[in-house]
Amino acid sequence: MKIDAHNHIGKKKGISVSVDDFIKNMDEAGIDKAVVFSFSEQIDNEYVIESVKRYPDRLFGFVTINPWSTTSEEDLEKAFSTDEIHGLKLHPVKHAYALDDHSLLDPLFKICEKHNKPILIFGGANVYSSPNMFAEMAMTFPKVNLIMAHGGQMYETTSAINVAKKYKNIYIETSSMFGIRIQNIVKKNLTNQIIFGSDTPTGDMELEMKKIESIVKDENELNNIYSLNLMNLLNGGNSL
Predict the structure, then answer these.
(1) If you placed Cys at 42, which of 12, 117, 143, 213 could pair as Cys (CB 3.0 to 4.6 Å)?
(2) d(CA 157, CA 134)
(3) Which pTM value belongs to this model?
């Protein structure tokens, strides 16, 4: 089974991705299931929920929350009360906050801890969501599983690998990563903490799969990356 952990549906200025078109893209690429959430620039969690209701056997919804919103905690609790939402999506860069801002983020992390839901967070070489900030939150909330989207991107992948090795509740999502960086993760025996993602519509499912399969040849490791690691998190699993 192949599950893509990083996909946007809905609309923002200049881009529109309907759920029907997205499902068609999944079928063409050979993706069995996918995590979907709205664009951070124009949040539409209701569209995500309705989309998952239409394709419950194919999609897992994550709710996108802007922590600066005065209703952020209420919105998160409401989303987690539905059967369609399986996790939280945060984008510190798009919404301009530091991931380790405890006064802003701790209330949301506590809600995720209470409901045993994972958080997928943009992770890159920037002042908002560096791997060291992931480490801070992973240490503070050891029962909350964090998925580092893009694995530190081009310049922070070594740091991303180091923090994932130290904190077993940090998982590295592969979209936009260089193949050699993924190879380094495999060499560090961290394939139980790698999660496949493509970041559509910016990324391409088929190209991202080819990248993984050009590096990882072991069938058990591929199963971990493509499905088992993510399903463990979606089912409430924790490495601790």
Answers:
(1) 12
(2) 13
(3) 0.96
